Amino acid sequence: MAREYSMDRRAYLRTVGAAGASAAIAGCLGGSGGGDDVIVPGTASGFPPFEFTENGELVGFDVDLAEEVIDRAGYEVGDWVDVEFDTLIPSLNEGDIDLVAAAMTITEDRDETIDFSDPYYEANQAVLVQEGGDFNPSSVEDLEGNRVGAQSGTTGEDEVQALIDEGIVSESDYRQYDNYTLAVQDLENGNVDAIVIDIPVANNFADSRSVEIAFEIETGEEYGLGMREDDDRLSDVNDALAEIEEDGTYDDLVSEWFE
Q1: Which of 64, 141, 251, 257 could form a disulfide with 49 if both were Cys (CB 3.0 to 4.6 A apart)?
Q2: pLDDT tens digit string along 89-118?
Q3: What angle do CA 149, 153, 156 make, to 5 degrees?
Q4: What's the confidence (pLDDT) of residue 36?
Q5: What residues have CB less than 8 Å from 246, skipping those under 6 apart?
Q6: What is the mean pLDDT of the chain?
Q7: SS3 for 47-89, per residue?
């Protein structure tokens, strides 16, 4: 599908790159500043194919989907803000961003502090290991005595924490990362034995890096776009999301980024 982008936004991203997009958060303090007609989206890159940087530009399934949703809902897409995953909800509630588009799983804890759109993607967790390595676990029990990593603030970390609580993984063997790109680098270098990560992202890394999926953990997660609890624009976002799914645009995006 041919996608149409705002030339102003593309020029902005090419000029400042991901670091500049992250720095844009400083200009948003005290609210989005764009008025109710502008929705400032936020994400945490390093989670391909949902959100990542390519040639200095923020791209990915969530980026395309969020921009299409905001546009169809009748609002202007503000400049993207790229921060660490575990700071997205605080940034949203502080008014630094207006919408979270970051493959964020809808959970009861998160739903107590923000509102979510209708679900737009389903996924389970996967355990990644070195490709062709000596460690070949087939179940969570096989992780005992090994170093296991996950990204801070993610449901992958929740799964590892559950294994720690069950006594399968030792607290001292847990490795926490700011993003999964760093985690995969450590896995390739042998500094960690396995990482727990969303399946679609695990597949992406397995296709491009020297890692492979050992087994899957069925979690039945659903991703949603996050907005503040007092933001009346959520209903417009849901209407736009439904329209995109009904007219085939959603399927086109899935084909573009996952197939």
Answers
A1: 257
A2: 999 999 999 999 999 999 999 999 999 999
A3: 45
A4: 83
A5: none
A6: 88
A7: ECCCEEEECCEEECHHHHHHHHHHHHCCCEECCCEECCHHHHH
HSE value, Cβ hemisphere, 13 Å, CA-based, for 6: 15
Integer Cα distance of 121 and 216 in angstroms = 17
C-alpha distances (whole Å) from 6 to each of 40, 64, 77, 132, 227 are 14, 12, 9, 44, 23
Domains annotated on the chain, with CATH: 7-120+224-258 (3.40.190.10), 124-220 (3.40.190.10)
Residue 203 contacts residue 79 (beta carbons within 8 Å): no
Query: Which element (helix H / strand E) includes 121?
Result: strand 121-130
**Token pair for residue 208?**
């491009």
Distance CA 243, CA 140 (A): 40
Question: What pLDDT does 16 receive?
Answer: 35
DSSP string covering 139-156? SGGGGTTS-EEEETTSHH
Tokens of residue 228, six digits: 């503040």
N-to-C CA span, the chain: 13
